[in-house]
Write a structure and sequence with these properties.
The chain has 221 residues and is of the alpha/beta class. Helix content is 45%, strand content 11%. Helix 9 links the parallel strand 4 and strand 5. The protein is globular and about 55 Å long.
């Protein structure tokens, strides 16, 4: 069978398509405040890409908290509710430009997130969701970023080889996930410094530069 010549652009959600990392960070800080824990935003930004349960387990372990599974699950649901009550609505302006431009020139578009589907649908409208050919939420895989499973799941669903896909990320765990999957990665400096994104193939400050950059990748393949 002839290999598809199509290319895919696979976008992380939080901090790439929408301005949400600080909303997530404040929600996590709020639910753990009763345990006298202070969680700096930067610490949570570096956790971007993990499922909520993995993030919560990490915090519980780090601070040696004695929480049973029922308590932990209730805490996570409270965090998600706080997030949805405060979530940004709509694509970032530069993200909308990049997504629409790439779609117009034939790229297959995917959204690959550590968030549950309900959170995604809270932040993006139905027309915005329809811009993406595939959407991979936390419910669609077992092992979260930095494991390659989220991106490999997306490639499989899109019918594309990882070598014909580029991930757009803003955090080290997502960069590691995509690179381990065999993809090129473009990192966006929306939440972390360039030095923390150095494992990406390229680092950009806004997504208006993305379509031209991805076309260069495609031509250089």
């Amino acid at each position: 069978m002839k290999e598809s010549q199509s290319w895919g652009a696979l976008f992380d959600l939080d901090g790439v398509l929408i301005d949400s990392p600080d909303v997530h960070a404040r929600a996590w800080a709020r639910v753990f405040r009763p345990y006298n824990i202070v969680l700096p935003p930067e610490r949570l930004h570096r956790e971007e890409g993990r499922k909520s349960l993995d993030i919560a387990h990490g915090i519980v372990s780090e601070y040696d908290l004695d929480l049973d599974d029922d308590t932990l699950n209730k805490l996570i649901e409270t965090k998600r509710r706080i997030y949805r009550d405060n979530a940004p609505h709509g694509l970032r302006k530069d993200a909308r430009y990049a997504v629409q431009m790439l779609k117009s020139i034939g790229w297959i578009l995917g959204l690959v997130s550590g968030s549950v589907r309900e959170n995604i649908e809270t932040a993006l409208s139905e027309p915005e969701l329809d811009l993406f050919d595939i959407i991979i939420a936390a419910e669609n895989y077992t092992r979260s970023k930095p494991d390659p499973e989220p991106y490999l799941t997306a490639c499989n669903k899109a019918g594309l080889a990882p070598t014909h896909c580029v991930a757009i990320e803003n955090a080290p765990l997502g960069i590691s996930s995509a690179r381990t999957a065999g993809m090129k990665v473009v990192a966006l400096t929306s939440t972390l410094r360039r030095s923390e994104l150095r494992d990406a193939d390229d680092v950009i400050d806004d997504l208006t530069k993305l379509p031209r950059l991805l076309e260069l990748y495609k031509k250089g393949n």
